[in-house]
Design goal:
Elements lengths: L3 E14 L5 E15 L4 E5 L6 H8 L7 E6 L2 E2 L5 H7 L3 E4 L3 H4 L6 H12 L4 H14 L16 H13 L5 E5 L7 H18 L2 E6 L2 H4 L5 E6 L2 E7 H6 L4 H8 L13 H4 L8
Bound molecules: adenosine-5'-triphosphate.
GO molecular function, one term: ATP binding
InterPro entries: AAA+_ATPase (IPR003593), ABC_transp_ATP-bind (IPR050319), ABC_transporter-like_ATP-bd (IPR003439), ABC_transporter-like_CS (IPR017871), P-loop_NTPase (IPR027417)
Family: Belongs to the ABC transporter superfamily.
Amino acid sequence: MSLLEVANLSKSFSTRRDFLGRRTGWTHAVHDVSFTLDAGECLAVVGESGAGKSTVGRMVLRLIEPDSGTVTFDGENVLSAKPHRLREMRRAMQMIFQDPHSSLDPRMTVADAVTEPLIVHTDLDRTARQRRAGELLDKVGIGPRYLGRYPAELSGGQLQRVAIARALTLDPKMIVCDEPVAALDVSVRAQVLNLLRDLQEELGLAYLFVCHDLALIEVIADRVLVMKSGEVVETGFTTQIYSDPEEDYTRALLAAIPDPIPRSRVFRASSLSSPTRSPG
Ligand SMILES: Nc1ncnc2c1ncn2[C@@H]1O[C@H](COP(=O)(O)OP(=O)(O)OP(=O)(O)O)[C@@H](O)[C@H]1O
């Protein structure tokens, strides 16, 4: 049994209403999407803008309610879970969003952002929470000296590291990464991508990695699910998708890669977490 099993997921959004407020127009954002994700595996969901990737990621965590289909996480039905149980399940299923400026509260210090899940989900005292936050900031390569800072004092790359630390607070089994480097400067994308990959290896994390750019996923994804207009076009191991794609659409996505991240710019986490290094 896989860690995550998604079957026949569909979702439409209403896009227009008539003068009485009745829904008259629909976008079929996701149609009949199925896939599995094993523990410790990274599955990239790729496709151009509007393909339905983010909607799939959000439905897996039930941040958006699907119209139909099933989502099973660790053997449990996510879509029928009662609110209390869903809250418990979400300890193990976290999400990292594209823009850390909007995913982190500007009024909360880094320490507050990272420890908030511990306040909600555990009975650790303040000292233990601060210690855990310091450990997590070390793990993501920015160190505990940032604990008292506010988001406005950090760069985009540093903020995304804080968002990653926050996602790790409750020892999740799976993280939905929704375009986690798309909003970052090109110069720090490889660093954050490699941090994610090294954390995955170290902690045995599974990633559902939503990404519009095939150039970015070669270094991190084990398998790829290609989506177009809400449907799955093709799925396969990353090496096979890159070397021998079956579908014209996948070939077109590959042909559109403008500037792949050279493997020489792929750093190890050990160098990222060095206190002497100044990450972006
Ligand atoms: N809340 C919503 N209301 C109406 N339409 C929506 C909503 N969310 C998404 N859509 C539509 O559903 C379709 C799929 O959107 P989605 O964001 O999942 O695509 P995506 O592949 O993640 O694209 P992008 O990379 O641009 O975010 C799009 O046509 C989008 O406009």
